[in-house]
Each structure stands twice: as C-alpha cells, then as structure tokens.
Amino acid sequence: MPERFTVTTPIYYVNDVPHIGHAYNEVATDVLARWHRMRGDDTWMLTGTDEHGQKIMRTAAANGVSPQEWTDRLVETAWKPQLELLNIQNDDFIRTTSERHKAGVRIFLERLKEAGYIYHGEFEGQYCVGCEEYKTANDLVPGTGEYEGQLVCAIHSRPIEVVREANYFFKLSEFGDRLLELYDSRPDYVQPEHVRNEVRQFVKQGLTDLSISRNTFDWGIKVPWDESHVVYVWFDALLNYITAIGYGVDDEQFERRWPGVHIVGKDIARFHAVIWPAMQMAAGLPISEHVFGHGWLLVGGEKMSKSKATGIEPKQITEVFGVDAFRYYFMSAIAFGADGSFSWEDLDARYHSELANGLGNLASRVIAMVHKYCDGVVPDVIPDAEIATLMADAVGRADKAIDTFQIHDAVDAAMSIVERLNGYITEQAPWVLAKDEAQRLRLHAVLATNVQGIGTAAIMLAPVMPETAQKLWAAVGGEGDVTAQPIQQAHQWRGTGRVTTVPPLFPRIEQP
Ligand code: MSP
Predict the structure, then answer these.
(1) Is 374 a catalytic residue?
(2) Which residue of 55, 168, 316, 418 has the fewest C-beta atoms within 10 A of its own C-beta?
(3) CA separation for the pair 167, 231 (Å, rounded)
(4) Domain count, the chain
(5) Quick one: which atom of ligand 1 is closest to the CA of 50?
(6) What domain range is 348 assigned to?
(7) DSSP bridge pairs for 44
(8) Residue 222 host element (H or E)
(9) To test the ligand 1 pocket, which listed residue (15, 25, 239) has its Cβ within 8 A of the most ligand atoms?
(10) pLDDT tens across 409-445, in order?
C-alpha cells in the first residue's frame, strides 16, 4: 500500500507581486511532493490563491475593474506563470473565488453552526488590512516617518484601522485545552521546535473568540444564513485545504487525501496551528498531519517584501542562473525552518563552486573518460565498496531528512556523493591507470563507480533540479524518466549501457 502524502502551500494573496519569498515556499513544497512521488507514495500537492478581502476590493476599484476581473487577471498573468517558471508540479490549483471552494465553505459553516460553535455578537478591534487580521496591543509598534506618533502593525509598518462591527463569531476560546493536548500528544504536529513553542505559548495565554464575518464590504463568500455578511478572509482561506479535495461533496476523494501536511511561513503558522485545528475539531475532522513553519528570506537583514522595496522577483534570478540553480540554491543554502539571507554574491559563489565546478565538472569529466577509455560503454564491474557504502548512507540520510522536513540536509546528502567522487577521481587518477594495460580492471571499476555515483546523485537531485537530473540521467545511460526511479533505492542503480553526452549544465556566469 503506498502511503498518502498530501502537501499544501499557503494560498497566496493574489494582489501581491510574486516574489522569491513566495517562490521559496512553493519550491520547498514541490521538492517534498516530488520526493514522495519518487518513493511511490500516493502524493497530492495543492497550491492556489487567496482572493477575497478588503484589500483586493480596494485595488480592483483603484484599477477600474471588478474584483473578479482583477483576480482572474492576476491569477493568469502572475501566479500561474510563476508556478510554470519554477517548474512546480502541483496536482491542483485552488482559487477561493471558485464555485467548488465557495460550496465547501458554505457546507462547513452550516455544520459548525449546527454544532453550536457559531454565534452573533458585537465587536470592536484594531484591524490590519495588510495582515487581514485583528491585532492585539502586543502586535503593534510605534510608527516611524510619516506614521510617527501612531501605533502601526509590526509586520506591515502601517497604521491599523479601528473596526466596530456586529459579527458572527467562532467559539475559538473553547478549544484552548484541546489544542494544548494536541501539541503535547503529537510533538511533531507543529514544527520546527521554536514555532511549536511560540504557538503553544500563544494558546496558553488564553484564546478569545474569533470574528468570522464582516458586513462593511461584500467581496467575499456570503454567510449562508445571513447574506449581509461575508466570511472573514482567513476563515475562508484555511478551508481551501479541504474544499480542494472534495470536502462535503466527494467523500471518496476526501478520505483518500485528508489529512494533509501544511508548509507555511512562520508568520502564518499561528493561523494554521491554532485557528485551523480548532476549526477541524469543531467540524469533527481529522487534524492535519503537520504544520511546518519555515523561516523568512531576508534581504539586507530584513524580511523581503515588495512593500518595503526589497522584493526580488524569481525571474530576475532565473534569467541569469536558470531555474534549477534557483531551486537548488534556496533548498541547499538555507536550513529549512531557519531564516536565511539572500545575497547575489552567495548565490554566485555557490553556483560556481557547487554546481558548475562540483556537479557539472564531475559529469563532463566522467562521461568524457568513459568515451575515451571504454568507447562509451559503461564497464560491467562491481563499484568500489567504499563509495557504494557512502551512497547507501547518503540515500538513507536524505530519505530520513525528508520525513523531518530537513530539505537542506537531503540536498547535502546528495551533494556529498558528488564531492566524494570528485576527490575519488583525483586519488584514483584514471588517466594514469589508462596508460597501464595491467590496470585495466581497476580503471573499469573506477569509471563504473563514478557512473553509478552520478546516476545515484541524479535520482536524488531529481526533486530539486528536475531538468538537470534528467540530463545527467540520460548522460549516464539511464533509461526513460529519472523520476520513475524508486528514490529509496537510488544507490542500487547500476549503469550497464552506453553513456551519451552531457550538455552544458551550468555555464559560467561572468557578470550576474
Ligand atoms: N493568503 C495568506 C495565506 C493563507 S493560507 C490559508 C498569506 N499569503 S501571502 O501571500 O502573504 O504569503 C504566502 C506565503 O509566503 C506565506 O507562507 C509567507 O510566509 C510566505 N512569504 C512571504 N514573504 C516571505 C519571505 N520574505 N520569506 C519567506 N516566506 C515568505 O499569508
């Protein structure tokens, strides 16, 4: 029986210009999904866009179009192209303005109401439109510059709005104990540890009920029993994870896919690990398997964001370094879970040392030698035991790392093979062995070991650098699609056919 692996990205605010912070999140989720597919797991990757709320309504108006036209345009011109650019293999794309989503949200709300978790009440709060969230005093900081003398949102550095409304509320406050019990009984539910501690601390301080509707604007999903209200955007958005897989309408699909794993930025871990599981408890659903809160990409020491003009679009990088190098860099240079600083210098240095000189060079040298010394035929000889053991260890380590979301460690394990092989070639000096007929078998063993190593590394790198891996795979004579290889047995692959050629994988870049 293949294991189920349903994995989700957050759904992105459609209004934002896609930047490398979003891309980071998408690529990481895609790498996990691709790895699980290559394990043979019943994998499903979901992503999409968050399209309701006041901010979107305002920008649509400022652009002179209806909110629906506005979001349609952004999905087609910005978000879907971003997925294509980054070579993301998502199985589905959910939009919160789609009929299937709206229908699921209505069903969910009705069920919660019937179960007695929704009531009508008065509310006044300080709302940040950027976060689409009511803020507490702890979330606000003194403003600077034009906002000097005012309190502003700590994330957006902009003033909050005081909102007074009669709303529908979700009885979030009733779930504190059950949430604490969830964190204690399933210590790997929220990861990494520092995010888990923060979430736990937040719940321990006591939860207040959550306002889940608004009636001062209408760009949202109407509350089924009171159409003068629309559903609060976060409540609406979190439900994408289940409406996309048939909640309330397709039980078979839902059973097959749910529960899933959520990969989110740490800034929104609280929504996913507090509000969302409480909603699931209230509706009697199985709780998500994991919520993993990754770190932020920092540029110049600050969280990268378009509004602070530190925004970098993925294509600025991919146009120079290529898509695979983009994916590799962010997955290997930053420990998944920690913040990471992006710099062009670091990217350039790693590209040249690890990819061009490390991987690219290894492949072209080995393939050239198999052509030169063996007429392109991979010698059918048992590889060297030391390297075979190293490869088996690397595959085991990487596979475990994926289960604990340590993507950088999985990449490191794959690259440890490349690094070792480069050293091994220097030590074994096949060009010297080739001069001595008596060393023929030794030469064959060295070359066969290298071919196997590159094949193994290609399989392991396929989730991270799909195109490069396929080229490496074809070069060492691998048949068909590298992704058809069982990744947990990557080290057992034995090339016995003919090598082909390696196209230039990582051309030198003079002026990034
Ligand atoms: N729409 C909500 C999510 C709803 S999910 C039910 C949202 N959208 S967002 O577009 O603002 O953010 C999407 C994701 O991008 C979040 O996980 C966020 O953490 C991530 N990132 C945005 N900027 C980032 C960085 N600079 N670095 C890393 N990730 C960042 O929140």
Answers:
(1) no
(2) 316
(3) 10
(4) 1
(5) 1
(6) 343-492
(7) 6
(8) strand 222-223
(9) 25
(10) 999 999 999 999 999 999 999 999 999 999 999 999 9
